[in-house]
Structures are given as C-alpha cells and as structure tokens.
Amino acid sequence: MDKDFDLDALLAEAAAERVTPSAELASRILQDAVLAQPKPQAWPQLSVKTKTSPPQGSFLGWLTAFADVLGGGRAMVGLSLAAMTGLYLGAAQPNLVQSLTSVLAADSTSVDQIDLLPATGTLWAEN
Amino acid sequence: MPRDTLNEVSDETLLVLYANGDPEAARLLTLRLATRVLGYATRLLSDRAEAEDVTQEAMLRLWKVAPDWRTGEAQVSTWLYRVVTNLCADLRRARVRRPGVGLDAAPEVASQVTSVVASMMEADRMAALNAGLASLPERQRQAVVLRHIEGLSNPEICVIMGLGVEAVESLTARGKRALAAVLSGRKAELGYEDEAEEAV
Q1: Residues B171, B150: one domain?
Q2: What is the distance between the alpha carbons of residues B28 and B18, in angstroms, rounded to a whole number?
Q3: N or C: which end of chain A has fewer CB within 10 A?
Q4: What CATH number did the domain enclosing B47 receive?
Q5: Where are the domains of chain A?
Q6: Whose CA is closest to B119, among B107, B129, B110, B105?
Q7: Do B193 and B122 fall into the same domain?
C-alpha cells in the first residue's frame, strides 16, 4: 500500500469527522450574540410643552378656554382692540368718518344720527 | 425572515440580517460556523477546552464586527478562519512562555516522535493523526489542516495565513511529507495494514 495513499485516507477520514459544539458552548455563543446585537435606534423624543391649565369652573378657566377657541391670548387681545375701536368710531362719529360715510352712502340715503357722546369733531378740524 | 428562506441565504447575508436585529440569523450562523471553527481550533490546539474558548472568542469578534461588515470584500468563513488562526497562534505562544506546557516547547524531534508513538499506542487513528499534526511546525500544521481537513482552496488559505500561493503550496507539501514521515511505520497501529492484508 502506498504511504501517501494511507495519509490521504486518514486525512479524508478526519475531514469527514465533525466536531460538534456542546450545548453549553452553543448557549455561550448565542448569549454573546444577543448581548452584542445592535439594537434598533429609537426615534428622538419630541419635547412637548405642556401648559398649566387654570382650575376648571373659575372665570379665569372659562376665559382661557374661550381664548383657546378664538386662537389664543394674542388673538383675543387683537379682537378686543378691534371691537373697542369699532365701538368708539360708531359712538363718537368723528368728521373724518362722517365725510367717508357720506361719500360711500351718497346723498339719497338719509341716516338718523343720535349724539350719545359729546361731539369731538372740532378736535379733528384744522383751524 | 421565514426559517426556510434563511437556510438558503449566504453567511454574509445572515451577518447583515444579524446586524439589522434578526435573532434567527445568529442561531443559524452559530450552527453553520461554530462547528467548522471548533474543529479547526481543536486540530490546531489539541485541546478541546482551549478550542472551545477560542471558538467563543472568534464568534464574539464576528458579532462585534457585524455592523461594520463590508459586503463583497471577504467571505465570512475565511475571515473567521483567519481570526481562529491568529487566536490559536497567540495561545500557543502563551503556552511556550509557560514552562513545560506546550508541544512546541520541546525542540527535539526524537521527543516529538516519542509523544506521537505514545499517543498511537493508547488512542485511535484520529488521536494519532492529531498527535502527528501537533508535532508539525505551526505554519505547516495550519496549512495541512486548512487544505486537507477543512478542504479550503489555496487562494482561501492565502487570505487566512496572509501568504502567497507559492508559500502556501510549499507549506502544505512540506507539512504533508513531515506528517507522513511521523506516521509511517505505524500503519498497523493506524489500522491500515490489517485492512490491506484482508483485501489481498
């Protein structure tokens, strides 16, 4: 028998032999795999500002809720200023407004005017 | 991914799946690769406990490199064989530094042959082969095991050992001749002569 052939057969026998990892080794390897496995990245937490709401049932609470419905505190201030200006123009009826309304309403239209406040038209007129 | 599908995918794809958080991929990679790695380490070290430690360490390095793995550059198994080769070399060097432990620490061929013969007397053919392999110089042993037992191609062995093709061929041939020389004259103990006589 050829010496080299013997060795080839022996090596082939060794190649066919499988060294099976023990259950304990497999467990250790899988434990390492779990610990080393990259974790999916979490989405960054969005910071949400929370308002401290006033106690419900109080006037302040009602006003806050009403302001929220209209668009918040700033919108509420704007609306209030616009309402007060309109009220003043309607009540005081300065000359500037009267001349404007006379042009817009034409001569055929008669408007009944009632003086609720003392006339301030003289303050607008130039001497 | 379904298990049937995972069985058909490559090691590299499984590694990418593992890096993406697939738990089944790690189990399949362990089944595929740990067996080969353990067998190779056992042949190189002739010590099952040390081979298991090397296998665990090599697999751990694979898990760690998974997120940065560049696909198409190297085979996973070749990369792993290279890691095991280096780990085993480190371990054997550490053995040499410990007095009276390593096989490589014994410089005389006569004492190596004695240990091989003693091994043959009390063990089966595989134990005799392992003892014969252990008597070879480290690089020859690596080349012979990778080529003739692990069944890798020369280009793959070149990558694992970091050598050129000619160097690998030379190491493999010299290692095989040295192994044959160590095991020759012991055919009866290896069980080949009896089989040959029966065949005649």
Answers
A1: yes
A2: 10
A3: C
A4: 1.10.1740.10
A5: 73-106
A6: B129
A7: yes
Per-residue model confidence as pLDDT tens digits over B73-122: 889 999 999 999 999 999 888 877 765 544 444 444 445 555 555 445 44
Q: Do A14 and B129 make contact, defined as CB atoms within 8 angstroms? A: yes
The answer to whether B147 and B172 are in contact (CB under 8 A) is: yes
Q: Does B23 touch chain A (CB under 8 A)?
A: yes
Q: Which residue has the tokens 């799946």?
A: B17
Q: What is the pLDDT of residue B109?
A: 47
Q: B58 and B105 in contact (C-beta within 8 Å)?
A: no
What tens digit of pLDDT does each residue of B34-63 get? 999 999 999 999 889 999 999 999 999 999
- A14, A26, A32 member nearest B126 (Cβ): A14
Q: Give the DSSP H or E segment for B80.
A: helix B76-97
Q: B181 to chain A: nearest residue by CA? A: A3
B126 contacts chain A (CB < 8 A): yes
**Last residue within a domain, chosen from B65, B81, B105:** B105
The pair of structure tokens assigned to B199 is: 């065949």
Domain that holds residue B49: 1-105
Residue that terminates a domain, selected from B46, B80, B105: B105
What's CA A39's distance to the chain center, in Å? 30
The answer on B5 and B97 residing in a single domain is yes
Of A9, A13, A21, the CB nearest to B38: A21
Element (H, E) at A95: helix A95-105
Q: Which chain A residue has its CA at the smallest distance from B173's CA?
A: A4
A29 in B contact zone (CB under 8 Å): yes
Q: CA B38, B42, B47, B51 torsion: positive or negative? A: negative
How many structural domains comprise chain B? 2
ipTM for the whole complex: 0.76
The answer to whether residue A31 neighbours chain B at the CB level (below 8 Å) is no
Residues B47, B124 within the same domain? no
